[in-house]
Amino acid sequence: MTDTAAERWAAGLARWRIPDEVATAPPPEGFPVQRFADIADLSVTLDSPSRRIATAVLPEGGSVMDVGCGAGAGSLPLAPPAARLIGVDVQASMLEAFRERALARRATATAVLGPWQEVLDDLRSTDVVVSHHTAYGTPELGDFAHALAAKALRRVVLELSSEHPTAWTRPYWQAIHGIDAPGGPTSDDAADVLREAGIDVEVVHWEEAAPLPPETEDEQLRFLRARLRIGPERDEELLDLLRDHPRPSWRHVTTLWWAVT
Length: 261
Description:
Radius of gyration: 19 Å
Strand content: 15-25%
Number of helices: 10
Mean pLDDT: 94
CATH topology: Rossmann fold
Strand order of the largest sheet: 3-2-1-4-5-7-6
Shape: globular
Number of strands: 7
CATH architecture: 3-Layer(aba) Sandwich
Low-confidence stretches: none
CATH superfamily: Vaccinia Virus protein VP39
Largest sheet: 7 strands, mixed
CATH class: Alpha Beta
């Protein structure tokens, strides 16, 4: 029997899990808030396709729910015209950064702590629901999309990189652990999952209009140590790899969106 798009998506994400022979140390707790805050601050200065698609149906004084909000890169650029922002995330420190920035944009800010599976049912619907760069952490992508649509009055807008966000670390896995990292899945695979789930999704491929905020050498080393589960004793190797395979400062991005009727 041929596997489904949803099964291929989940299997592709599973191949990116840290191998058991490498995952001997516990993963770091949470994502670096300052990095997400810098990206959120940059987002409000840019006119991206995701922003235009969302604001096209947002009334003046409208509302936006941002699921997996981080520091708010998906929703802050929408205020105004939005006047009410709801941020959902599993990391309290991210929600603090989101709320601070939403209030600075003179929007009413509601921060909701918890996984989407547990909190969305209790939230009021909003004009637009957005979720940026969460898809590659969501094996149950079809269920996720329908849960977002259930809370949207007008439109759902998903943004994700065209390929897995850690695809650039493939040479590192080979050099450090002798492991060949997988090739997929991609944003086109995500679109296939949504179509299979009965969603009439529109797809827009684009490239970021400005480079991502720069990282210091120490920040890059901390990320790579955590990702590869190694200690600072391998920093010289990592620095050599960073020179040959630097972390990209630009991303190829895809916006997946659909109207809610």
